[in-house]
Amino acid sequence: MDAVLEHMAQNPDLWAFMLLLACGLCLPPWSEELVILGSGYFVSTGDLGFLAAVFWCWGGILAGDSIIYLLGRFFGERVYGWPILRRHLKPARRQRFNASFLKNGTKVVFAARFVPGVRTVAYLVAGTLRMPYLKFVALDSLGAALTVPVSVFLGWKFAANLDYVLEIMHLFRVPLLILACVGVALLVYRLSMARKNRFLALIRRRKQRDEQG
Fold first, then answer.
1. What are the distances in angstroms from CA 200 to CA 4, 78, 194, 204, 210?
2. What global pTM score does this model have?
3. Which tens digit of pLDDT belongs to each residue from 112-169?
4. CB atoms closer than 10 angstroms to residue 195
5. Residue 168 Cα to chain centre, angstroms
């Protein structure tokens, strides 16, 4: 964790983006959770705003995942022969993913965001099987929206105990995901109700004007 914070110290926004992009390409020795928690830490120090941290983390994740998707889209099956991917993407594993994707492509892409060991394979398969890019982006963005704000918040509020928070996140990944889903659902509900109330208020004002006229 300390190494991540040292790298991010000068420009935490830009470093969060770059490190998460690299995470999507399986390059650095750190996980996404470390970088996102680190962004939360810099929210606590005042070097980043909460929304800015969420935005930069979300952008880095989406950029890295998009590159993986586009590699599969433009190079097709040839990507599986590249040395950096060959040992991770055995033929039997690819066949299982292809079969799952053909049955439940939407669910596979969405669920892959929460399972680090299968993200790369799932996103490459999404590209090679030509899932529409906008659909891929929407699913990936939704998955990130369920995890990034929660992780940034935890890094912000528990900045003095980030290693402990990371352990808790690994132990309670599923409950935290459920909590994030509930939070997003409540937010969507409140926004929809606010929009409905504005619409009803507009209708009432129009009726009043019609009656007065």
1. 50, 56, 10, 6, 15
2. 0.72
3. 777 766 777 788 888 888 889 998 998 888 888 888 888 898 888 888 878 777 777 6
4. 10
5. 19
**Contact yes or no for 73/130 (Cβ under 8 A):** yes
Distance, CA of 21 to CA of 64 (rounded, Å) = 4
Residues 63, 80: contact at Cβ < 8 Å?
Answer: no
**Domain residues of the chain, as ranges?**
2-161, 172-213
Buried b / exposed e over 5-21, threshold 16 CB at 10 Å, is bebbeeebbebbbbbbb
Determine the Cα–Cα distance for residues 87 and 81; give it in Å rounded to an integer: 9
- Say how many C-beta atoms besides its own lie within 10 A of residue 123's C-beta: 27
